[in-house]
Amino acid sequence: xxxxxxxxxxxxxxxxxxxxxxxxxxxxxxxxxxxxxxxxxxxxxxxxxxxxxxxxxxxxxxxxxxxxxxxxxxxxxxxxxxxxxxxxxxxxxxxxxxxxxxxxxxxxxxxxxxxxxxxxxxxxxxxxxxxxxxxxxxxxxxxxxxxxxxxxxxxxxxxxxxxxxxxxxxxxx
Length: 173
Prior knowledge:
Elements: H1 2-29, E1 46-50, H2 56-68, E2 72-73, E3 82-99, E4 104-118, E5 124-140, H3 144-171
Parallel strand pairs: 1-2, 1-3
Antiparallel strand pairs: 3-4, 4-5
């Protein structure tokens, strides 16, 4: 009896492995790939970052993502550098629903990234553009500390998403 159960277990493991390999093969055959940060065009690989209104963590995140995309950052004013001006701001929160009995509220948290590109000679390469993102949070009014924690995490996540979207747009320049 134990020999039969061992053979059945081996057959199940082989079947599961076959299914996994078949799915991986089908995904790769259809062209699916995980998208990472690509490479910026040559004219954007030398950037003077103008991000005075960003927090230190936002500047670090943006600098890291630009570096991964192949840009070198400096503010030495050399003639081959383009100026990338970036600002991120919070938009007013919106209450979407209020559940009095459960003491919960659904709030939409929104952020907006504004950017523009200028040559060192002052010529506008990309006029000021906006990228907006939002997330809906269900907040428990019985837990004020948890509300602030969730809101801060949502804002950090939105900032990461906005910066990632900016890099993707710059790659298409």
